[in-house]
Amino acid sequence: MRLDDLKDHLGDKIRIEWKSFMLRPSEQGSKSRQEFLEYSKLWAPMSDLDTRLAVTSPWGSDDPHPSHSLPALAASKLIKTFGEVIEDDFHHRMFKAYFLENRTISDVGVINAIAAEAGADAKDFASKFAAQRQDLDSQVIADHNDAIQHGVTAVPTVIVNNEIAIPGAQETDTYMRVISDILARP
């Protein structure tokens, strides 16, 4: 949401590039249902910080909670090839699917459905996702390793101009100040 504010305010002066950081890289060590329900209670204050963020806290769906981060992040790599409008819509829909609708965004069927909801051709996306999965996973792992080298330890972390890391969900003004300082450089 706040990154959308930046795009609206700064237009083509900035470029937002989504990078991957896996909070749960694999199914190994996945939380139990009860542990995940307790974890999802931590989402409740998100709506207080930004009224545009709607969450269901705790997880309110009978669907299984996501097992790990890799499938959704791999899908986000592929969705870039469908154009910026679809990519932006996909990211919004994935956040909504996870935090509000409590859908299992590690499930390939759910991922394919969300891509179609965002405007990607369903058969084309599903086919490419299956065929390119190993390469997409490798791209996510490379992003993750790069993030660690940049000192990233949490999500979200915004890295401005490949030099300044801003961890945590910050107010739009925080990002604006940092970006304005960079844009003002000679």
Instruction: Tell me the major beta sheet.
Output: 2 strands, antiparallel
Structural class: mainly alpha
The backbone outline, from C-alpha atoms, is: globular
How are helices and strands ordered from N to C? HHHHHHHEEH
Tally of discrete structural domains: 1
Mean model confidence by pLDDT: 90
According to DSSP, the number of beta strands is 2
Strand % is under 5%
What value does the Rg take, in angstroms? 17 Å
Output the strand order for the largest sheet. Answer: 1-2
H/I helix tally: 8
Note the gap between the termini.
30 Å
Under CATH, the topology can be stated as: Glutaredoxin
The CATH architecture classification is: 3-Layer(aba) Sandwich
Q: Class in CATH? A: Alpha Beta
List keywords for this structure.
mainly alpha; Glutaredoxin; two-stranded antiparallel ribbon; 8 helices; 4% strand; globular
Structural features, described:
With 186 residues, the protein is mainly alpha-helical. It has a single domain (17-148), classed as Glutaredoxin (3-Layer(aba) Sandwich). Helix content is 52%, strand content 4%. It contains eight helices and two strands. It has a two-stranded antiparallel ribbon with strand order 1-2. A hairpin with a 3-residue loop joins strand 1 and strand 2. Helix 4 (70-79) crosses helix 7, helix 5 packs across helix 6 (108-117) and helix 6 (108-117) crosses helix 7. It is globular, with a radius of gyration of 17 Å.
